[in-house]
Design brief:
By secondary structure, this protein is an alpha+beta fold. Helices cover 30% and strands 30% of the residues. It has two domains: 106 residues, no CATH class; 84 residues, Alpha-Beta Plaits, CATH 3.30.70.260. The chain is built from five helices and ten strands. Helix 4 runs antiparallel to helix 5. It is elongated and about 55 Å long. The model has no long low-confidence stretch (mean pLDDT 90). Keywords: Gas vesicle. Its main location: other. InterPro entries: GvpL/GvpF. This is Gas vesicle synthesis protein GvpLGvpF.
């Protein structure tokens, strides 16, 4: 039986395109319920293994959707959401429709960008001052931001930002300005990503 692997949910027109997809699939398309469209590919399991290759394919499909037609909003699913039938998937879309609508409104026209600030070895850094300097430059440009884990002693700041497409250049310039001001810090600036950090719609895979 062929199952449906879900990348995310959008409310734009349906899509269909060929690409390297999760689990060896080569086609991505949509399963629709009313105006919600789940972006899916076919897969032979409802419990896919998260290999590095498939995790990258998952992200690549989301990026492809975000870049289509001048930019599309999508609520991304975490890796591993698979359903055994269109009916099971449509039932989830039906039940979570209000939550998806709210999430789509929140991310419409926006992208996620990430910034890690890392101290050089043995550098004496005032962490609070660095956080304040970054906030002064970036928080007024971003629509929202959230902190992420400081998983290393050298990490001064690890934060995700939700930024309007039209503000991307200003945000880039602000990060570059911070880099110029702090020679003893490394700025690891990443993205754009699908807005994982700013949506909270949880659905369970259906057997």
């Amino acid at each position: 039986m062929t199952n449906r692997y879900v990348y995310g949910v959008m409310d734009d027109d349906p899509v269909e395109f060929e690409t390297d997809a999760v689990g060896g699939a080569d086609r991505v398309y949509t399963v629709s319920h009313r105006r919600l469209n789940a972006v899916v590919s076919d897969i032979d399991t409802t419990s896919p293994e998260e290999t590095d290759e498939d995790a990258q394919r998952h992200d690549d499909v989301l990026r492809e959707i975000m870049e289509r037609d001048g930019g599309r909003a999508i609520v991304p699913m975490q890796f591993g959401m698979a359903f055994e039938s269109d009916r099971a998937l449509k039932n989830v879309l039906r039940g979570a429709r209000p939550a998806f609508r709210r999430a789509l409104n929140d991310v419409e026209g926006r992208i996620e960008l990430g910034l890690k600030v890392v101290r050089e070895e043995d550098a004496e850094i005032d962490d609070d001052a660095v956080e304040e300097a970054v906030a002064d430059e970036l928080e007024s440009i971003a629509a929202q931001s959230v902190p992420n884990d400081l998983f290393s002693d050298r990490l001064v700041l690890n934060r995700s930002y939700l930024v309007e497409h039209e503000d991307r250049e200003a945000f880039d310039d602000a990060v570059a300005e911070l880099e110029d001001q702090h020679d003893d810090l490394m700025f690891r600036y990443t993205g754009p990503f699908a807005p994982y950090s700013f949506v909270d719609v949880k659905i369970g895979a259906q057997q």
